[in-house]
Structures are given as C-alpha cells and as structure tokens.
Amino acid sequence: MTGTGEAVVFWVLGTVSVLAALGLIFARRAVYAAMCMAVIMINLGVLYLAQHADFLGVVQVFVYTGAVMMLFLFVLMMIGVDSADSTVETHRGVRVGGILLGLGLGALLCAVIGQVGTPAIVGLDAANAGGNVQGLGKLIFGPYVWVFELTSALLITAALAAMVLAHKKRLVPKVTQRVYSERRFREGHYPAGLPAPGVYARHNAVDTPALLPDGTPSELSVSPVLEARNQVAQPGQFEEIEEAITHEIEEGRAR
To answer: What parts of the sequence cross the membrane (predicted)?
Structure first.
C-alpha cells in the first residue's frame, strides 16, 4: 500500500522529471539539455530511494549522474558553453539517418517491452529476501535482460551523438608554417624571427632573456605570460655566480 508521503514524492518528482525530459528534447543549447538530463537522473535516484531500492538509487546518482554526465561535460568544454549551435549539416544524411535510427530504436523498445513477461508481484520484502543487489540482478539478467541491453545501446548512441556535437567543419584552410613565414616577410614584422631566450649556455632557459649588443635584456625574447607572472630571470642575478666561478678558475691556475 502506497503511503501519503511516497505518493507526494512520486507526483512531485514525476512532474519535474517529465518537464525536464521535455526540456531535454526541445532545448536548443547543449548546456540546457545537460542540465535537464542531470535533473532527471537525480529525480530517478530519489524515487528509487523512496521505493527502498537503496543500491539502485545510489548507483543512479553516482554512476549515471556522476560518470555519464562527465561525458556531456567534456563535450560542453570542447564545443563551448557560449558557442551558438550551427544549423549547417557538416555530414550528409545525418538528419535522415538520425530519424530512421530513432524510429528503429523506438520500434525495438516497444517490441522488447511487449515480449517481456511481467513477473508476479511478491512485495518488496519477498523480492529483497536475499538482498537488494541479488534481487536486482535476478530481474536485470532475467526477464528484463533485453531491456538492459537496449539501455546499453542507448548509451552508445548518446556517446556517438556527443562526438557529432563536438565535430566542427573547418571553415578556412589550415595555416601552415610556410604561410606564416611568407606573411611575416610580407608584413615586415621581424623577418629574421624573435631573439631566442637564454643568456649563458648553462642558463639557456625560456625565462632568461637574451642580451642586446649594449648588454641590456631583450623583452622580445621572453613570453609575455612569464613577464605577467614576474617569473623572468634577470641577467644580473648570475653575475655573482660568474664572478665566483671565475675566481675559482683563477685560484686553480695559481696553484
């Protein structure tokens, strides 16, 4: 018998899940679709916990919400949250293939669910008599094994869709090293290239600026990022070391 609290939780979370599912389907931006999917997965976990399926509820939150959503998070990081969705199809026949694949998966889902025999209702205490994990395993790999495999196919489809979202067609030709060189000579900006960093052979590092003929360090030889971080080594800090080494050499010669 369903209690009042359980019924309230079901209707509230069920309504929110349906609205989130509609948002997942009709969302025009990937970030909104990912947020709606996260809401659905969390609500399902809470519903499982309300039905005393502790293991299934925890797995729903940790595995699906924590692991599967990472896939979509990486996709959003690659395509950019603020990037506008392109309406130009970079692959021919993607829309037609997607519609046919969706109809095929829907027909397969209906056929599999129609052939699955509904087990007799024995109650939660009897179903979890050997443990919640054991009871869940008997159902998944028993009468619902084809539904479980179909869910795996849906996850693979989601992974393929994520890769399609991350694909971007190159709009301009790739700039090669030869093009960069010709552009540099054409514009006249440092045709011979920027001075290389490093003052002495033993300190040939990117954070050590090159020296100009007058002995002053060249600002063009080090990265502006290192300058902003105050990580540029000044040539003067090596003078004491050089003097000490020179003094040791002279003492060695005197002996």
So the answer is: 6-26, 31-50, 62-81, 93-114, 144-166
For the chain, the structural domain boundaries read: 4-82+99-118+130-166, 195-254
As its CATH architecture, domain 4-82+99-118+130-166 has Up-down Bundle (1.20)
Question: Within its chain, how far is the Cα of 247 from the centroid?
Answer: 57
Total-model pTM? 0.44
Tokens of 167: 């694909």
Instruction: Tell me if residue 211 falls in helix, strand or coil.
Output: strand
Interval 133-157 mean pLDDT: 79
- How many CB atoms neighbour CB 255 within 10 A? 4
Helical spans, DSSP H, in the chain:
4-26, 30-50, 54-59, 69-79, 94-115, 124-127, 132-140, 145-166, 177-187, 224-228, 239-254
Find all residues with CB under 8 Å of 241, minimum gap 6, and list them. none
Give the whole-angstrom CA distance, residue 141 versus residue 119.
Answer: 13
Rounded average pLDDT over 93-115: 78
The two tokens of residue 68 are 């599967």
Q: Report d(CA 4, CA 176) in Å as an integer.
A: 69
Residue 219 scores a pLDDT above 80:
no
Q: Is the pLDDT of residue 6 over 50?
A: yes
Over residues 87-100, the mean pLDDT reads 71
DSSP 15-77: HHHHHHHHHHHH-SSHHHHHHHHHHHHHHHHHHHHHTT-HHHHHHIIIIIIIIIHHHHHHHHH
Task: Kindly state the tokens that stand for 126.
Answer: 């009897």
